[in-house]
Amino acid sequence: MMTRAILLAALLAACRPAPPADPLAAYEPPAGKRAFSLAIDKSQTQFLAPGDAVEVLIMVETPRADATSDIRSEHLSSRAEVLRVKNDWSEGTGLVALALSPEEAQVAALAVEREDRLFLNKLSAGPDPLARKAPPPAAPVLEKDQRGLAVLVYPDQQEFLSAGDRVDVIVARQGYKAGGKSELTALTVMQDLAVLRAAPPEGNEEWATVQLRVSPEQAKTLTRAVAGDDHLSFAVRAPADAATRPVEPSKMSRRIGIDAERASPRL
């Protein structure tokens, strides 16, 4: 009887599901990718854990001339690694940090600005494990002729930031095309800036505050963006990734994704 009980206990232990991954675990984005934070319907983060990979879809709604609208499904990313997750970030809302290319991060900023619905479809595990996020470095200091510029951002853009992180700054702004039609555009206006401080909203405040280390010329550019009511998003870099390159602005009037993905079905 004792042997049978031991065998039964062993079988039950083998069948018991593995404990869920630590929801507060964090990973660094791979080289060339950026960590972009999204506040999203809780259903899309409920079963995700750091280290998972997902397909990111955007439901894009385009008004028609007859006052109806056309809704299509577009790939934002065919594969993006989940770097951080908070399933209970706020009521009905989860928060997830995804590893995206600079171009994909711009399109994500546009989708958030337009309030397009996003879906995160889990994929099979990838061959290359992500590196665990190291403890944040010591807060950087201001050198001679540098500035510490504080900006207001949505709380989801501050939640995963720490002093010492390095970010690209994306602005989403409303412009106009020839003929007077409006055009929403996202631009990467700054690359590889150090975060000096990051503070959540206090009390009933709506906005979080992030202080960035900038040059005097960069300060002018960012203050113009803030004065123009452009919404700022941050794309966090991997610690050893200091490479910069031109990033073509993203416009919501253009279809998203590579040619093969542009044949995605209309829903």
Number of discrete helical segments: 4
Proportion in β-strands? 35-45%
- How many structural domains? 1
Overall morphology: globular
Low-confidence region ranges: 4-20, 257-267
Order of helices and strands: HEEEEHEEHEEEHEE
* Share of helical residues: 10-25%
> Largest sheet at a glance?
11 strands, antiparallel
The beta-strand count equals: 11
Radius of gyration from CA coordinates: 21 Å
Mean pLDDT: 84
> Oligomerization state of this entry?
single chain
Structural class, from secondary structure content? alpha+beta
Euclidean distance between termini CA atoms: 60 Å
Question: Care to describe what's here?
Answer:
The protein contains four helices and eleven strands. With 267 residues, it is of the alpha+beta class. The protein has one domain. Strand 3 and strand 4 form a beta hairpin.
Keywords:
267 residues, alpha+beta, 16% helix, 4 helices, eleven-stranded antiparallel sheet, single chain
Draw up the topology in text:
Elements: H1 2-15, E1 34-41, E2 53-63, E3 69-90, E4 93-100, H2 102-114, E5 117-122, E6 147-153, H3 155-158, E7 166-176, E8 182-199, E9 208-214, H4 216-227, E10 231-236, E11 250-251
Antiparallel strand pairs: 1-4, 1-10, 2-3, 2-5, 3-4, 6-9, 7-8, 7-10, 8-9, 8-11
